[in-house]
Amino acid sequence: MDIMKIKSMKGKEAIVVLTCYDYSTAKILEEEGVDIILVGDSLGNVVLGYDSTQEVTMNDMIRHTGAVRRGAVSSFIVSDMPYKSDDTTDLAVKNANMLIDAGADAVKVEGKPNIVRALVQNEIAVMGHIGHLPQTKKPMVHRDFKELLTEAEALQNSGAFAVVLEMVQSEISQKLTDFLDIPTIGIGAGAYCDGQVLVINDILGMFEDFKPRFVKRYAKINDEIRKSVRAYKKDVRKGEFPDEEHSFNDKIIK
Questions:
Q1: Residue 253: pLDDT above 60?
Q2: Which of 5, 25, 41, 217 is most buried, with most CB under 10 Å away?
Q3: Distances (CA, A) of 151 to 99, 130, 175, 176
Q4: CA triplet 226, 231, 237: central angle to 5 degrees?
Q5: Domain annotation covers residue 143
Q6: How far apart are CA 241 and CA 103, in angstroms?
């Protein structure tokens, strides 16, 4: 997968995007043919236990980007620019290059068309992001189509190869998708986007602190983890683990 392929999928084939933060999960996503793996700053909530994504650091993003790349050696990987990592053009270019060096093919920027333009001019591929911007920590205000189109077109004109629409009304998402030349990737933005992205921990039922209403859970992994932990605890308490089969019994060579 590359940028030209992603852009060619617009209006023809839905683009499948999932977040991922670790080696083992990345291997699975690559094996199952996910089009884009997003190393999202949502790792702050679902992996690191931070109160907000504003606490995610460049070191966090670099470490997890490297882990994902080691698991998904051929996938197209996009890494979020964390909070305040792109406050100036020089800082953005420096930090984006570190994410590229860690294994990302592109970075994602919330708003900031001037920053997107600077990154693209430095040969760094960028995915844009409009609508609800988690890093701002401001309540989502539903804006009209013209305002969102202005923002989306600014990102497109700055060189973004795709744009995430987060919590944008479905009717507006459809209009934006029709107007833009680049693919739209929806999250809580309805069925008319060119692709969809969700947090892997949400769809697997692994993150229970809160559940966005637009999330569909495809599994209840935490229930299985609890069952396994209870069974292990029971076996250890009763002295049934480890048994002979699960003990190291090779002869010691003196």
A1: no
A2: 41
A3: 25, 7, 14, 10
A4: 125
A5: yes
A6: 41
- Structure confidence at residue 140 as a pLDDT band (50, 70, 90): low
Q: Give the catalytic positions in this structure.
A: 166
Is the model's pTM score more than 0.70?
Answer: yes
Which tens digits make up the pLDDT trace of 155-176? 999 999 999 999 999 999 999 9
DSSP state for residue 169 in the 8-state scheme: -
Residue 130 · residue 160 · CB < 8 Å: no
Residue 123 pLDDT greater than 60, yes or no:
yes
Does 240 fall in a domain?
A: no
Q: Are 118 and 92 in contact (CB under 8 A)?
A: yes
Residue 8's domain spans which residues? 3-220
Contact predicate 196/187, CB 8 Å:
yes
* pLDDT tens for each residue of 11-52: 999 999 999 999 999 999 999 999 999 999 999 999 999 999
- Read off the amino acid at residue 254: K
∠ at Cα 84 (82, 89), nearest 5°?
105
Any domain includes 243:
no
The number of domains in the chain is 1
Locate 160 and state its tokens: 């973004």
CA distance 254 to 247: 20
